[in-house]
Design a protein that fits this description.
Layout (H helix, E strand, L loop, with lengths): L2 H20 L8 H9 L5 H11 L4 H7 L9 H27 L2 H18 L3 H6 L1 H26 L2 H19 L3 H23 L5 H22 L2 H7 L8 H20 L2 H12 L14 H23 L6 H25 L5 H8 L1 H14 L1 H12 L1 H18 L27 H14 L2
Length: 454
């Protein structure tokens, strides 16, 4: 490892350390309590799974994890470890993907950790996306599975014989899993494959695309559609949709979905690290092999970016009438980063921007530029919130108040459950309310009485 790359690696680890530490400060909230006490019910796992699938939603992959909630035994350590494992799985997926694309472990590692830091720093709702077990199971792990799926497809394309067959089989299973976590993924992923099949078919007609690639894409598209059906047609979706009274308003959903698309895309792209990273990617585009993928029409990639962000906003508005806690936007942000990188590479290659003198200068000074971006991400956005929370020692007060509330529920049940007053900025939660009939209040009470008090 060269000296500059070693320094960047150390700096990246230092920048990511607070996010790792936050796993051990995170505390459960909202749906976590519901799934915890339902996981502790004295019925079989299959019965718990079917109860969720038939009576709440069709998220079959998420239910597998939520029906075995780490808090079912009342041990907070298991909750913290679950958050840590999920965060490390995101890092692992990025590393595997960029290693498969670049073919260099060192370059892939630094690229992956840099993208991971950007993803964590500018995620719209960090606590929902990374530190809330229910949110992790419904959204983040879908992204992990799909990225590993793509990595295995790259391996499949390069392999022969048994390795080729095994990689395609595992990739197919990961595709089924990735679609089964949430409705946005169930809409986006088959759409991506439909788009891929159309493009590959046109390429096959021109003898550009091998028959094996087109056939594989067609099979995967069919698998994605079947998986979509298992999620969307689940009886539980009908029950869940009726919890929201202002849903299925198409024009309202299109309007507000479009506005949110402009809002979040502008926020992500207009940050200083995003702009600097964009220039770096353009300057290094020639490092990637000159393939059909890297020279893909940049206009179509841009359309995919807009479609991805729009669908993550449109679907919540259409099904619930509100955008909620930005969980679906968190989800689309993962894909938007990768699509944005692809778009920049395509533009750079099509117009040979990497040959321009200005980009040559950026390329020569890339380690310094990356270092500046890392430092900025430590002290801004979500990184800045964590730094401020650590300096103010908000986590200690948050932890103390949470356990004091548990003790009050057990020993002083006459005291109404109230919201916590010392919630850290980096761990904003859906908490109890002064209205004692609120569903979160009820969930906290049931969890504490049924599990913690035992």
């Amino acid at each position: 490892m060269r000296k500059k790359e070693l320094l960047l690696f150390i700096l990246l680890l230092a920048a990511l350390t607070p996010y790792i530490l936050l796993c051990f400060y995170a505390l459960p909230y909202a749906d976590d309590f519901c799934y915890a006490w339902s996981s502790a019910e004295p019925i079989s796992f299959a019965a718990r799974f079917m109860k969720q699938y038939m009576g709440w939603s069709g998220r079959y992959s998420a239910h597998i994890l939520l029906c075995s909630h780490p808090l079912a035994g009342g041990r907070m350590l298991y909750y913290h470890l679950a958050d840590l494992i999920s965060l490390l799985s995101v890092a692992f997926a990025f590393i595997v993907f960029f290693w498969s694309v670049r073919g260099s472990i060192l370059t892939g590692l630094i690229t992956a950790l840099t993208v991971l830091l950007f993803y964590l720093c500018y995620m719209p709702q960090l606590s929902d996306g990374v530190y809330w077990y229910t949110g992790v199971c419904n959204y983040e792990l879908s992204s992990v599975c799909f990225l590993l799926h793509l990595s295995l497809l790259i391996l499949w394309h390069r392999s022969k014989g048994l390795a080729r067959a095994i990689s395609f089989l595992i990739a197919s299973l990961l595709l089924i899993a990735s679609i089964g976590f949430n409705e946005v993924g169930a809409a986006l992923i088959p759409s991506y494959y439909f788009f891929a099949v159309v493009i590959l078919y046109l390429g096959k007609k021109k003898n550009i695309v091998p028959n094996s690639v087109f056939s594989a894409a067609t099979i995967l598209f069919c698998i994605s559609v079947i998986s979509f059906g298992f999620l969307v047609l689940a009886p539980g979706n009908h029950v869940r949709s009726h919890q929201f009274h202002t849903h299925f308003e198409f024009l309202h959903s299109v309007l507000f979905g479009g506005l949110q698309t402009v809002r979040f895309t502008a926020i992500w792209i207009c940050t200083i690290p995003a702009l600097l990273f964009s220039l770096l990617i353009i300057s290094k585009a020639d490092k990637l092999p000159d393939t059909t993928v890297s020279r893909f029409d940049h206009r179509l990639i841009l359309a995919l970016i807009v479609f991805t962000v729009f669908m993550s906003a449109f679907l919540p508005y259409f099904t619930t009438g509100i955008l909620g806690q930005h969980r679906t936007i968190n989800y689309s942000f993962f894909y938007t980063i990768l699509l944005w990188m692809w778009w920049l590479i395509s533009v750079s290659k099509q117009y040979a921007l990497y040959e321009k003198q200005a980009f040559q200068f950026i390329r020569q000074n890339s380690p310094a530029i990356v270092a500046v971006c890392i430092v900025l991400m430590i002290f801004t956005a979500n990184g800045g919130k964590i730094v401020r929370d650590l300096r103010a020692d908000t986590f200690t007060a948050y932890d103390r108040e949470y356990y004091q509330r548990e003790d009050d529920i057990i020993h002083h049940p006459e005291i109404p459950i109230g919201p916590l007053k010392n919630t850290p900025q980096s761990l904003m939660i859906v908490d109890a309310q002064t209205d004692t009939t609120y569903w979160v209040n009820r969930a906290i009470w049931l969890y504490t009485k049924r599990i913690v008090a035992k």
